[in-house]
Write a structure and sequence with these properties.
Blueprint lengths: L1 H8 L12 H4 L8 H4 L8 H20 L8 H20 L6 H15 L4 E4 L2 E4 L3 H13 L1 H27 L10 H6 L7 E4 L2 E4 L34
Antiparallel strand pairs: 1-2, 3-4
Pfam families: DER1
Protein name: Derlin
InterPro entries: DER1 (IPR007599), Rhomboid-like_sf (IPR035952)
């Protein structure tokens, strides 16, 4: 993102060669790099610094600290899903060309859902973190106009759809989570190497094979351990 944006805003790279435009993608040979380059172009001026900072902060924060991305490649799968939905809604439907702000807002929305009940700083005020994506969308509406806000809002739609399909629907409706990280992606991100991952909320362990559970004896409960077995049967006060 830094290299591409520096080249474009420095006048060394034509922005028309990297923006999303479906006729240039669905041709032969296809310019498939536009599917990526349209997500990593910052704004000019101060936006160049702030976009880089916020993208790094929220993207790395989700990848390393979010409890929903516990397996290698989970965050990559999330980014691919969010980007695909954004391209379909903001690109093919609304005719947008640059989706950096939409992707950033998707990260912020997911971050807000993971940290519900906490506070976040927005400009000079402190607000509930759940309101942070909507506050940023309102700021875009004021400074960039309705079209810019609509394009950026596609990030919220994409992130909410991911949250609904992977968390809300399976948890509260008993449905199946169809968005699973493919095994090949897990291996590419090191699933066959380290089994321990350091997270902000603790250390996660990824077993290579199922760990056999000891069968509980006597009275049992939903937990296994030293309290699940029945004692020897000695009477209190006896010898």
């Amino acid at each position: 993102m830094f290299v591409e944006s520096a080249l474009v805003h420095g006048g060394l790279l034509n922005p028309m060669s990297i923006v999303f435009h479906s006729p240039w993608i669905f041709k032969f040979p296809p310019e498939i790099w536009r599917l990526l380059s349209s997500f990593i172009l910052t704004g000019g001026g101060f936006s160049f610094v702030f976009d880089l900072y916020f993208m790094y902060t929220y993207a790395s924060g989700l990848e390393l600290n979010s409890p929903r991305f516990t397996q290698p490649g989970d965050f990559f799968t999330y980014v691919v899903f969010v980007a695909t939905v954004t391209l379909g809604t903001g690109g093919l439907v609304l005719g947008g060309h640059i989706f950096t702000q939409a992707l950033l807002l998707a990260f912020i929305y997911t971050f807000a859902q993971d940290n519900r009940g906490k506070k976040a700083h927005f400009i000079i005020v402190e607000i509930p973190v759940e309101l942070l994506p909507w506050a940023m969308l309102t700021l875009t509406l004021i400074m960039g106009g309705p079209q810019a806000a609509l394009q950026q809002g596609m990030g919220i739609i994409a992130a909410h759809l991911y949250d609904f399909l992977t968390r809300l629907y399976p948890t509260f409706q008993g449905g199946r989570n169809y968005i699973q990280t493919p095994a090949v992606i897990k291996r590419l991100f090191g699933a066959d190497r380290s089994a321990f991952t350091q997270k902000a909320y603790g250390t996660t362990f990824r077993p290579g094979r199922p760990v056999p559970q000891q069968q509980a004896r006597g009275w049992t409960s939903g937990f296994s351990g030293s309290w699940t077995g029945r004692g020897a049967g000695r009477r209190l006060g006896g010898d």
